[in-house]
């Protein structure tokens, strides 16, 4: 559902290709709410951002690195994206060490959309767990996410192997935070998602949370997502016999910021709506796909979905700040250097800086021209407020200074 746009980009600014970092660097001691808030980050594709820059700008401390798969040629050994054997890895280890050195930590996600999953190739829950244990041991993990999607999602035996492996890992690694992520529908989740829950019940497995992905299914904003969460809440109660509070305490949401693969739009107001719901109902997890996409495209209103930007007007890392708030942090304000820097001084009695034809303005930025104050509705450059605000509807006229 959410991995259709991987763009090979190499290891970019992850950690410098030649930097050697101990694979089992000590993880920071983070509360579970940070693993519950960790947004997805692809370390090798989709133009990976510098996680330290994101941490400094948002207050976010944890990231969900994706994805661990079976080798593209088959077999039961873990790889990054089917091509990079975990046993030989130094790049992801360096990235993890860099994040930990700055007071953060990571969870690692297995599965995702596309590719061959270890549950499909390892044959048994025990063999699948042994493969994942290599990942836990290599990186000293305190958290792992099982992202069960197509085509594995529809393979009963493979899902059984994944759930069984998660149970074994939970038993053999006390305190390991395990999340299960699966498809969301307007009914909460579909037939395959319900079967997965039934399998978990039969195996006697309870993770930290079950999270649905309410996007790519005809959703229209935050209200539709909240409705799906309520429906999924009922499914959890009915499946496991939980009371309402217990079900909420094991429920989570995994979103897609900006434009989805199916052309849905989830803007900042939608994230605020789902965050309000998650906090008020004490949900167990709040995450999104992805940090790679949490920045504005050159055309912020493009009609295509990108793996490297959101396709909606935004400031950098704006959606990640919602994750930090869920974890209980107060994100830092945008530093002055990231604001437009018009070259001309304020006009007349206006306290708002004068509009500059060369400055880039994003949603909420203000400028003055001809004695009026204006607020940008979205990304704009070179559109004069006084001349074009009515024609192009880029600027809101706030009246005289």
From TrEMBL:
<keyword id="KW-0732">Signal</keyword>
<dbReference type="InterPro" id="IPR036573">
    <property type="entry name" value="CBM_sf_5/12"/>
</dbReference>
<dbReference type="InterPro" id="IPR017853">
    <property type="entry name" value="GH"/>
</dbReference>
<keyword id="KW-0378">Hydrolase</keyword>
<dbReference type="Pfam" id="PF02839">
    <property type="entry name" value="CBM_5_12"/>
</dbReference>
<feature type="compositionally biased region" description="Pro residues">
    <location>
        <begin position="332"/>
        <end position="345"/>
    </location>
</feature>
<feature type="domain" description="Chitin-binding type-3">
    <location>
        <begin position="352"/>
        <end position="398"/>
    </location>
</feature>
<feature type="region of interest" description="Disordered">
    <location>
        <begin position="326"/>
        <end position="350"/>
    </location>
</feature>
<protein>
    <submittedName>
        <fullName>Chitinase</fullName>
    </submittedName>
</protein>
<dbReference type="InterPro" id="IPR052750">
    <property type="entry name" value="GH18_Chitinase"/>
</dbReference>
<dbReference type="InterPro" id="IPR003610">
    <property type="entry name" value="CBM5/12"/>
</dbReference>
<feature type="signal peptide">
    <location>
        <begin position="1"/>
        <end position="22"/>
    </location>
</feature>
């Amino acid at each position: 559902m959410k991995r259709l746009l991987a763009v090979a980009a190499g290891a970019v600014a992850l950690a410098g290709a030649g930097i050697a970092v101990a694979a089992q660097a000590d993880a920071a001691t983070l509360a579970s709410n940070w693993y519950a808030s960790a947004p997805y980050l692809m370390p090798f594709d989709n133009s990976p951002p510098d996680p330290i820059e994101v941490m400094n700008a948002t207050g976010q401390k944890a990231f969900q690195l994706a994805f661990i798969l079976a080798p593209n040629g088959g077999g039961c050994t873990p790889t990054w994206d089917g091509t990079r054997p975990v046993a030989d890895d130094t790049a992801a280890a360096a990235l993890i060490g860099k994040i930990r050195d700055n007071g953060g930590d990571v969870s690692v996600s297995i599965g995702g959309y596309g590719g061959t999953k270890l549950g499909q190739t390892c044959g048994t829950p025990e063999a699948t767990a042994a493969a994942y244990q290599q990942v836990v041991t290599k990186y000293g993990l305190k958290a792992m996410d099982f992202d069960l999607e197509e085509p594995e999602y529809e393979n009963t035996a493979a899902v059984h192997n994944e759930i069984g492996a998660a149970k074994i890992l939970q038993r053999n690694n006390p305190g390991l935070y395990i999340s299960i992520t699966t498809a969301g529908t307007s009914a909460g989740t579909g037939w395959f998602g319900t079967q997965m829950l039934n399998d978990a019940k039969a195996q006697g497995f309870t993770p930290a949370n079950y999270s649905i992905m309410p996007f790519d299914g005809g959703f229209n904003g935050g209200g539709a997502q909240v409705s799906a969460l309520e429906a999924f809440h009922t499914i959890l109660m009915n499946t496991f016999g939980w009371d309402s509070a217990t079900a909420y305490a094991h429920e989570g949401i995994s979103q897609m910021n900006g434009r989805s693969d199916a052309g849905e739009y989830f803007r900042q107001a939608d994230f605020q709506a789902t965050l309000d719901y998650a906090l008020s109902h004490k949900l167990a997890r709040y995450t999104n796909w992805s940090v790679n996409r949490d920045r504005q495209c050159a055309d912020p209103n493009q009609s295509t979905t990108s793996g490297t930007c959101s396709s909606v007007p935004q400031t950098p890392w704006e959606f990640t700040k919602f994750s930090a708030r869920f974890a209980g942090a107060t994100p830092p304000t945008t530093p002055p250097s990231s604001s437009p820097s018009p070259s001309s001084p304020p006009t007349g009695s206006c306290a708002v800086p004068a509009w500059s034809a060369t400055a880039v303005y994003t949603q909420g930025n203000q400028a003055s021209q001809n004695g009026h104050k204006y607020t940008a509705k979205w990304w704009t450059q070179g559109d004069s407020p006084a001349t074009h605000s009515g024609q192009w509807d880029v600027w809101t006229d706030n009246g005289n200074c």
